[in-house]
Amino acid sequence: MTEIDTSVPHSARIWNYWLGGKDNYPVDEAAGDAYTAVFPGIVTIARSSRAFLGRSIRYLVTEGGVRQFLDVGTGLPTVDNTHEVAQRLAPESRIVYVDNDPLVLAHARALLTSTSEGVTAYEDLSLYEPGKILEAASRTLDLSRPTALILSGILGHVADYDRARELVRSLLAGLPSGSYLCVNDGSRGTDPDYENAQDSYNETGAVPYFLRPVDKIEAFFEGLELIEPGVVSVPLWRPEPSDEEPRPIGQHGGVGRKP
């Protein structure tokens, strides 16, 4: 197994730190604090992305009738992981998580538990291996039945936009009619301070994450039926009645159904 390097900051551990998790190291806290010093709103973006994930899964279970989830690039387990949200509403839900980070692997097997009625599995694979992902997922999921593909904060790590779209298409091609795509990613055009902070971070030599214009995030849903309200800043996607007045941030997402 790949050695976990604790001497350099790591994006998944920094994200975990911003979410209030404990699976990070002083080097990650230092990098996270340096980023928030430049752009304090990154914590709101991280937590709003997580809240969107929860709301979208609740929609998929309660209104979409989905009971199978393929979560690629899951990141470190925190609160309200995909299986927890889905199985709270439908205990029989089956979830496959996919990531190829040794730290995520180390924690996933211990933390990603399941209800007795459902199943949760973890596959140590890369987003760049869609064929292998589908093959591995088929050991846990019935891919002849509707499945929700979750890509939360992962596509921005794919530098080549055309490659990112190709990966989404390849994964969706292995899922039947009635399946769903759920994407949320960092966006351009809403918050210049966020864009400047992220561009500067990308120049530090850390693993880069590329913010994209909203129309490029929308294009991931080409050929799908977008669920209202479409691709919007994540706080504006079906907010809970109890939520404070949602304000747009530089993170956009949506849910689409495969016809």
Automatic annotation (TrEMBL):
Where on the tree of life does the source sit, at the highest rank? Bacteria
> Which biological process annotations from GO are given for this protein?
methylation
Query: What molecular function terms (GO) are annotated for this protein?
Result: methyltransferase activity
Q: Which Gene3D superfamilies match?
A: Vaccinia Virus protein VP39
Q: Name one Pfam family in it.
A: Methyltransf_19
Instruction: For the region Disordered, give the residue spans.
Output: 237-259
Q: Which UniProt keywords apply?
A: Methyltransferase, Transferase
Please list the coiled coil stretches: none
What is the protein name stated in its UniProt record?
SAM-dependent methyltransferase
- Which species is this record about? Streptomyces osmaniensis
